[in-house]
Amino acid sequence: MQLHEARVVLTGASGGIGMEIASALCAAGARVLAVARHQESLLPLLVRYPQNLHWVAADLTLSFDRHKVLAAVEAIGGINLLINAAGVNHFAMLEQLDDSDINAMLAVNVSAPICMTKLLLPQLKQADSAMVVNVGSTYGSIGYPGYASYCATKFALRGFSEALRRELADTRVSVLYVAPRATRTSMNSAAAQALNDALKANVDDPKTVASAVLHAIAGDHRDLYLGWPERFFVRLNSLLPNLVDRGLRKQLPLIRRLSHKPENEQKP
Ligand SMILES: NC(=O)c1ccc[n+]([C@@H]2O[C@H](COP(=O)([O-])OP(=O)(O)OC[C@H]3O[C@@H](n4cnc5c(N)ncnc54)[C@H](OP(=O)(O)O)[C@@H]3O)[C@@H](O)[C@H]2O)c1
Does ligand 1 lie within 6 Å of residue 36's CB atom? Predict the structure, then answer.
């Protein structure tokens, strides 16, 4: 896809990764409908790219708000790119989570992108060539302790992306699944950051993720797994899960300890 010809709905546009994608798309000449509940973090970009960027206020868990996005798409005469980047995450052992946290992850990370895609598919199909981009995670391929519900949502999003790609194989709409590894945004709580620090995990800058996503869109790729050795572990987990079980078993005391630490005792 030619980025300067992209007419985009971008969810999660006010977040760490979404905002960098919005910025890079606008710099490339694309027109972007930035979907999020909050506008504040987008204000500098809205001022910088008044022709390219427009904010649509929407809570993606609400059908009424998703239809507001559709109305905005119709008002600009259609789109050829939908990027589902909104997401929520809670690092905690399953028993520590409230049902409301679990349901929020399922609603924002799974139901919302599926329903948003369904709603906008007729618009995407009208374009000469179009793409749906679903932002998953390394945790969409590796089940990780402390992230059981989040992993469930990202595994679901990966399955949805694969099935949808096959369902749309005889149309002009393609599907790109993106799996970032840990990325420096406010999605990661102090506890999650403390775990990444303790494990010396690689943490990407959101700009790096955005630039890789744009490259994958421009190259019409089908999936994008960010980072080494994370790509290797994804492959290893699918071939030799018992080996990964043993490795993660050793991390379990640390994961359990950090997930239980009160927020005010954790590093920022
Ligand atoms: N950060 C990481 O380490 C990491 C790693 C792998 C994958 N990812 C994935 O990358 C994507 C972006 O993550 P991020 O790190 O940029 O997260 P972030 O900074 O926390 O941003 C989350 C975004 O989701 C939006 N959102 C949350 N609930 C919403 C709702 N009910 N309705 C509409 N929008 C909602 C937020 O917008 P409002 O609050 O303004 O509505 C915000 O724009 C997510 O899908 C995440 O799972 C992140």
Answer: yes
What class is the 3-265 domain? alpha beta
CA distances from 10 to 96, 246, 253, 255 (A): 32, 39, 38, 33
Please tell me if the CB atom of residue 123 comes closer than 6 angstroms to any atom of ligand 1: no
The C-alpha atoms of residue 164 and residue 136 are separated, in whole angstroms, by: 15
Chain-centre distance for alpha carbon 119: 18
Give per-residue pLDDT as tens, 107-132.
999 999 999 999 999 999 999 999 99
Strand bridging mode 81-84 / 53-57? unpaired
DSSP 110: I
Q: Three-class SS of residue 36?
A: strand
Residue 52 CA to ligand 1 centre (angstroms): 22
Which residues are known to be catalytic?
150
What number of helices (H) and strands (E) belong to the chain?
Answer: 10, 7
The conformation of residue 191, written as its DSSP 8-state character, comes to H
CB 233 within 8 A of CB 142: yes
> Is there a contact between 267 and 190 (Cβ–Cβ < 8 Å)?
yes
3-state secondary structure of 151: helix
pLDDT in tens, 128-183: 999 999 999 999 999 999 999 999 999 999 999 999 999 999 999 999 999 999 99
Decide: 61 in ligand 1 pocket, CB within 6 A: yes
> How deeply is 23 buried, as exposed, middle or buried, from its count of CB atoms within 10 A (0-12, 13-18, 19+)?
buried
Name which residue sits closest to atom 34 of ligand 1, judged by CA: 36
Q: What are the domain boundaries of the chain?
A: 3-265
Between CA 200 and CA 203 the distance in angstroms is 9
